UniProtKB/TrEMBL annotation:
Signal peptide: 1-26
Organism: Bradyrhizobium rifense
Domain of life: Bacteria
Keyword terms, alphabetized: Signal
Protein name, as recorded: Uncharacterized protein
């Protein structure tokens, strides 16, 4: 558990996105029940790709193609946990990757996504099993 917290803290520092509070770090314990834990070196990273709304979508897509975004992202061996379009914002992708590949993912985004997108990065963890278990516990009483 300590190495997971350390990886999350390093991710937060490297990404420059947000600081983990002691309360948030305390919640990084693996979810109870049948949820499979991730490897000690795996981190989740949520990336916001915010569209440049001052330009038409066709122009943005052409620039993404020219910069090789679709070929480079996601890199091989990085798991895409989710990837959604958020209307009015852009796209939000959550990736699972070894902490050692964080720089690589960042550089791919810098080299291929900047221009059409403004990006934000957030270290992330899966809270669904914990949240749902707490909801069920609260509604059972």
């Amino acid at each position: 558990m300590r190495s997971i917290r350390l990886a999350l803290m390093v991710t937060a520092w490297l990404a420059g996105a947000c600081a983990l509070t002691p309360a948030a770090m305390a919640q990084t314990a693996p979810p109870p029940g049948n949820a499979a834990p991730t490897a000690d070196n795996a981190v989740l990273l949520t990336v916001f790709f915010k569209h440049d709304q001052s330009r038409p979508l066709s122009e943005l897509n052409a620039q993404l193609d020219k910069q090789g975004f679709r070929k480079a992202f996601p890199p091989a061996g990085v798991e895409v946990v989710s990837w959604y379009v958020v209307m009015g914002i852009g796209q939000v992708a959550t990736l699972r990757l070894p902490a050692s590949r964080l720089r690589e993912v960042n550089r791919i985004i810098e080299d291929t996504a900047w221009g059409p997108y403004r990006t934000e990065f957030y270290p992330t963890y899966d809270y669904k099993a914990v949240g749902m278990a707490e909801h069920e516990k609260a509604t059972a009483n």
